[in-house]
Amino acid sequence: MNLLRIAFPIIFSMLLLAIPGTSAADDKVSSATRTMAEFIINMQHYPSEADKDMLKKVAAEATTSADEKTIAQALLNFKHKAADTDKPKLKAIAKDVTAPAAVKSLANILLSLHHEATDADAAKLKKITK
After folding, report:
1. Do 71 and 43 contact (CB within 8 A), yes or no?
2. Backbone angles phi, psi at 63, to 5 degrees
3. Could you tell me the pLDDT band of residue 24, with boundaries at 50, 70 and 90?
């Protein structure tokens, strides 16, 4: 019984110390996610031809994840709002517990985006770009 009184606080403290390390790993945002966040901040209504070329390059990079490619495609299809065909894919990313927080944020923002980013969404996106 005394062993539990001593061991439990030590184990609990060690677990608490491990939590910040876990969240810090999630703070690593890929260049593709950063690029798309910057793009969304500045986008108005739909991507230009130059924007589409940039998004295609982002999607073609070997380091771009499948979720990021899905978001890039949704941005390519974006016309004032996310295309109906892209919404289920974005919802799946937003609900995916294994997806990075920044990628989930992009998916959620795209789902609610109408013409351009709101001030609240722009603030979230700026955090991703840092």
Report:
1. no
2. -85, -5
3. very low
CA-closest candidate to residue 43, choices 106, 127, 104: 106
3-class secondary structure, 113: coil
Tell me: the pLDDT tens digits for 88-101? 999 999 999 999 99
Assess contact for 72 and 36: CB atoms under 8 A. Answer: yes
Please give the model's pTM, rounded to 2 decimal places.
0.77
The CA-based angle 102-103-105, given to 5 degrees, is 65
Instruction: Show me where the domains of the chain are located.
Output: 29-129
Whole-number Å distance between alpha carbons of 123 and 87: 23
Rounded to 5 degrees, φ, ψ at 126 are -65, -35
Instruction: Render 50-107 in DSSP notation, one character per residue.
Output: HHHHHHHHHHHSTT--HHHHHHHHHHHT-SSS--TTTHHHHHHHHH-TTS-HHHHHHH
Please state the φ and ψ torsions of residue 59, each to the nearest 5 degrees. -65, -30
